[in-house]
Design brief:
- The complex is a heterodimer.
- In chain A, 25% of the residues lie in helices and 34% in strands.
- Chain A has helices at residues 43-49, 95-99, 102-106, 121-125, 132-148, and strands at residues 2-5, 13-16, 21-22, 28-33, 36-41, 52-57, 63-64, 69-75, 79-83, 88-93, 114-118.
- Chain A has a 6-stranded antiparallel β-sheet with strand order 3-4-5-11-10-7.
- Chain A starts with a strand and ends in a 7-residue tail after the last helix.
- Chain B has one domain: Alpha-Beta Barrel (TIM Barrel).
- The mean pLDDT of chain B is 94.
- The N and C termini of chain B lie far apart (57 Å).
- Chain B has helices at residues 17-22, 81-90, 108-119, 137-146, 160-166, 177-191, 208-221, 246-260, 284-293, 332-342; strands at residues 12-15, 38-42, 78-80, 97-101, 126-130, 148-156, 196-202, 224-229, 270-271, 277-279.
- The chains are: A alpha+beta, B alpha/beta.
- Chains A and B meet through helix 1 of A and helix 1 of B.
Chain lengths: 155, 345
């Protein structure tokens, strides 16, 4: 587990398991489970989005491409796509979470969003942060970008 | 004697989700990097607001505790005023203005004065959104004396009949059209021309012509008209009513800008069927330049240090996926969308 912090505030602390892979910008985590991958929103992603009010995903059976949306999410003050870190086909949607997206705010790693059958997994994972050092390096750069844009409300 | 529960004003106060995010009291980042530099506060009472306004999330008939109800579609969390003041001090550079919204009831007048006084050491300009039903001119003067620089009145409905139906007798509410306009006049008199504001909500059932006429009336009185797009609030009487159509709101935003800045007046506008704006009373080339600037479509609100709206109310009158009042300068893509919306049927 990698703990990333910004300032001293209790809620500006984000846990990122080091055995997961991450989409660098949309903060989608990927867990490799045999021949399938499970995906959800990482701790920083759910924090940045705020309390989620709506979530939509493509249906089961839909082919998705790395870097392209497999769905979108919306909170009171934010809306954005969820872009997939890997290519493949959606084999299951967590409908309970999609219907009650604030579940992601409660437990963002437990409440996954889609299960995907990947089509080029090894190649797709190659450029995704994974392991403590890579995750820390990626997140530090990410936080700096937010700081530079004066978007990080952490003391 | 007033019963004070643990979380009532003036010791406690609600603040908008956007203000809470700005002060780091709630997580989240605004869509497209929008910024808010006005901290919007709302008095809070166990008994809630005595109003029954059909479009409002705070109406007294709505179930749930007052401070747990959504208002303008989002949560308004409650915090101790002292904690908010401390946060504002810590983020001094980010905060350019404070706005205190009264509610109708409780000891709202005294409590507003107490909040103004408590925040005075921060040295930030203060606006008050006044509750005319429980306020007289002497008390408006007291608000100014305590430190408020701008006084606003949310008339909201553009015609007397709509006001009656949405806020007055029609919903068993205590508010009266004449008192609201009288209070706006008092605000102009007390705070001075340009330092009084009037909130108007487009899409409650008025025609565009009626809204333009009302905005002109506000400006003629020496107040600023701040336009909001109606968006249904879950749990309110109007929860099933459609939002104000985007095209109508865009035309009214442009009309508001033109009237506010002296480019046109109600008498120069022309209107078609159903009171729809057919002409803005200025040349096509001039209108194009103004539309292309994007400024008329930005949130209209109390100013910050640079004279632009500090009260940007990010996604306050529409969800981020359907922006009504832009909390930032619209980009070229936004302006293309706005132009398309303006020409709707």
């Amino acid at each position: 587990m990698v703990l990333i912090t910004a300032g001293t505030k209790e809620d500006c602390r984000w846990d990122l398991p080091d055995d997961l892979y991450y989409h660098r910008k949309d903060h989608i985590w990927v867990s490799v489970e045999g021949s399938l991958v499970r995906m959800g929103l990482d701790a920083f992603g759910q924090w940045a989005a705020g309390t989620l009010a709506q979530m939509r995903t493509f249906p089961v059976g839909r082919a998705i491409r790395k870097g392209h949306a497999f769905g979108n999410l919306e909170s009171g003050k934010f809306i954005g796509p969820m872009r997939s870190p890997v290519s493949g086909k959606i084999v299951e949607v967590n409908t309970e979470v999609v219907s009650n997206p604030s579940m992601v705010n409660d437990d963002n790693y437990g409440n996954w969003i889609v299960l995907v059958e990947p089509s080029s997994l090894e190649e797709d994972l190659a450029d995704l942060p994974n392991g403590a050092a890579a995750i820390r390096e990626w997140m530090e750069a990410e936080l700096q970008e937010f700081r530079d844009k004066d978007l990080l409300n952490c003391d | 004697m007033k019963t004070i529960t643990k979380t009532e004003s003036p010791e406690y106060i609600q603040l908008s989700l956007a203000a809470a995010m700005t002060l780091g009291l709630r997580p989240g980042i605004f869509y497209r990097g929008a910024k808010l530099s006005c901290i919007n506060l709302l008095l809070t009472y166990g008994k809630g607001c005595a109003g029954s306004c059909a479009y409002c999330g705070l109406q007294r008939q709505r179930s749930g505790r007052f401070n747990r109800r959504s208002f303008i579609r989002v949560e308004w969390p409650t915090f101790p005023l002292a904690e908010i003041a401390a946060r504002m001090k810590k983020r001094e550079a980010r905060v350019e203005r404070v706005c205190i919204s009264m509610v109708t009831g409780g000891g709202a007048v005294e409590d507003t004065l107490a909040v103004i006084r408590a925040l005075k050491p921060l040295g930030k300009p203060v606006s008050v959104l006044m509750a005319p039903t429980i306020l007289d001119q002497k008390q408006v003067m007291e608000l100014k004396k305590a430190g408020a620089g701008i006084g606003s009145v949310a008339i909201d409905a553009a015609t007397p009949e709509l006001f009656r139906r949405m806020r007055g007798e029609g919903v068993g509410g205590p508010h009266r059209w004449n008192r609201y306009w009288q209070c706006l006049g008092e605000a102009v008199e007390v705070f001075g021309p340009g330092n009084a504001g009037c909130h108007l909500i487009a899409g409650l059932g008025e025609t565009e012509k009626e809204m333009v006429q009302t905005m002109q009336q506000v400006v003629d009185m020496g107040a600023n008209a701040h336009l909001f797009s109606f968006y249904p609030e879950e749990g309110s009487v109007l929860e099933k009513q459609s939002p104000c159509p985007a095209g109508r709101f865009r035309r009214l935003q442009l009309a508001s800008y033109l009237i506010r800045n002296g480019f046109s007046t109600y008498g120069r506008f022309s209107f078609g069927g159903g009171g729809r704006i057919a002409g803005f009373g200025i040349g096509i080339a001039e209108a194009d330049i103004i539309i292309e600037s994007g400024v008329p479509f930005m949130t209209s609100g109390c100013p910050g240090q640079d004279g632009m709206a500090a009260c940007t109310r990010p996604y306050g009158d529409g969800p981020p996926g359907d922006i009504r009042s832009y909390p930032f300068m619209p980009n070229l893509e936004d302006i293309a969308k706005i132009k398309m919306e303006m020409g709707d049927k």
